[in-house]
Amino acid sequence: MSSSVNSDCHPIKAKLRKLRKKLRQIEHLEHIERTLTPEEQQKIDNKNGIRSHIKTLLSDYKKENPVDDRARGKGTVQTEEQPEAKSLGETSKQTSLHVEEIVPSFSKAPQDEEMLNSLQSDSNLSTVLNAQDYCNDRELLMVKNNASASGRLGTSSSTDCHKERVDRVKRLAGQKFTVQELEGHNDQITSIHLEEDIVLSCSRDTTIKIWNASPGGKVISLGAHTATVTGVTVLPGLHTAALLSDLEELTSGDLHDAENDVKIICSCSSDCSLKFWHFTTGKLVKSIYTFNPLTCMVSWLDEPWQLVGTDGGKIEVWDIGKGISICSVLAYDNAVSVIVLQAKQLYTASADGNISVWVLRDSELHVIFQSDDIKAHDGRPVPRQRIYTLAATDQALYYGDDGRSVKVLDWRKGSLANSLHINVPSRQTS
Questions:
Q1: Are the CB atoms for 102 and 95 separated by under 8 Å?
Q2: pLDDT value at 7 more than 70
Q3: How far apart are CA 289 and CA 331, in angstroms?
Q4: Smallest Cα–Cα separation from 181: which of 85, 91, 94, 86?
Q5: 94 phi and psi angles, rounded to 5 deg
Q6: Could you give phi then psi for residue 12, rounded to 5 degrees?
Q7: CB neighbours of residue 2 within 10 Å
Q8: Sheet holding 264-269: strands in order across?
Q9: What's the whole-model pTM score?
Q10: Over the stretch 276-316, which tens digit does the pLDDT of each residue have?
């Protein structure tokens, strides 16, 4: 096939897109909390056959386009198949891990070559390179190159900064880490929150667990939800104060700790509720019915509000002191999958691959960006896939979807920077 033909219009790629869409639909069926129909169960039973078909099509595509992937600097077609993960200590609760030599491979722009070559040329660099350090070093290198051309910046400061980062990752070489398994849930874990040495987790088994990560620490199990618990967090002080003013029992009796501030755990669930728990005793102190199954949440810092996402695509603002909804916006056609707050801007994503940025003014949500037509750095349209996680900085959004790379979105320009790929070499056994 001629290389001049647009690969995005390739018939094999069109088939791959349809098959991947089927897999996402099957994944949704696997999470439905009801008895499946015979037709739905048949679709789930056909999942492995679809994966095999994808592998065959991918192999055929690579045979017809042997140069295409290398020319683009990235895999053109991604499959749903993930590499099989190795179990860490199947019989032991604690496993010592040694940091092996793992050299990441990034899809990089030409200006990244100098920095990455200097890192990878050191044979003693026996660690995993942190992706954020990579991005920071890349920005530093670009500033250095631009400023050096005009003679305004010396090389000593940038060189020292670069050396410090290399030294930091070198110090990980030879280190040992301990993996501690916290067993207790009976189904998929959906969210985790850390509060000093306390771990909060929630699950599809409808429970929340409070783990003391220290040796011999106890576990408290919280059970009042009737469906999947999709999020858990500890409320900020402002939110706790709003609840305290409404709940007299928290300021008297055995729930009050005179020496420490009262902490409140908040959970959201598919059972259409926000629930609030006393951090120390685990007692349920309040429940708010939200009328919609909840998929995610975040605390607004300036007011005692919880911002939640629903499985119907709505983003809502709830006043937890008054127990009422003060704002509701239909943002997506599918479920809201991620909600993140950064510098008073709200970043959300959906199960159908859309991203939005919001500001909250006068108790109303106003959208300032929607990812209707995101372009890759080379101008190609970016296919929409289910987004599972998202992190925001002042400069960019980092998100993970059904693909195998971390995507970096400059939402002000509506385009993707080069994606970050990390290739871990497989270990061969004799």
A1: no
A2: no
A3: 21
A4: 94
A5: -130, 135
A6: -65, -40
A7: 4
A8: 229-234, 264-269, 273-278, 284-289
A9: 0.60
A10: 999 988 999 999 999 999 999 999 988 999 999 999 999 99
Rounded Cα distance, 382 and 375, in Å: 6
Write the pLDDT tens digit of every residue in 324-379.
999 999 999 999 999 999 988 999 999 999 999 999 999 899 999 998 878 887 78
Three-state secondary structure string covering the chain: CCCCCCHHHCHHHHHHHHHHHHHHHHHHHHCCCCCCCHHHHHHHHCHHHHHHHHHHHHHHHHHHCCCHHHHHCCCCCCCCCCCCCCCCCCCCCEEEEECCCCCCCCCCCHHHHHHHHHHHCCCCCCCCCCHHHHHHHHHHHHHHHHHHHCCCCCCHHHHHHHHHHHHHHHCCCCCEEEEECCCCCCCCEEEEEEECCEEEEEECCCEEEEEECCCCCCEEEEECCCCCEEEEEECCHHHHHHHHHHCHHHHCHHHCCCCCCCCEEEEEECCCEEEEEECCCCCEEEEEECCCCEEEEEEECCCCEEEEEECCCEEEEEECCCCEEEEEEECCCCCEEEEEEECCEEEEEECCCCEEEEEEECCEEEEEEECCCCECCCCCECCCCCEEEEEECCCCEEEEECCCCEEEEECCCCEECCCECCCCCCCCCC
CA-closest candidate to residue 230, choices 287, 280, 192, 265: 192
Confidence check: pLDDT of 234 > 60: yes
- Assess contact for 36 and 60: CB atoms under 8 A: no
* Six-digit token string for 166: 């290399």
Q: Token pair of 327, please?
A: 């704002």
Place of tokens 């011999």: 216
Summary mean pLDDT of the chain: 74
Question: Cα–Cα distance between 299 and 146 in angstroms, integer?
Answer: 41
pLDDT tens per residue across span 48-102: 888 888 888 888 877 777 644 433 333 333 333 333 333 333 333 444 444 333 3
Judge whether 180 and 171 are in contact, CB under 8 Å. no
Q: What is the mean pLDDT of residues 178-198?
A: 89
Answer whether residue 198 shows pLDDT above 80. Answer: yes
Q: Which residue has the tokens 């300032």?
A: 368
The pLDDT assigned to 197 comes to 84
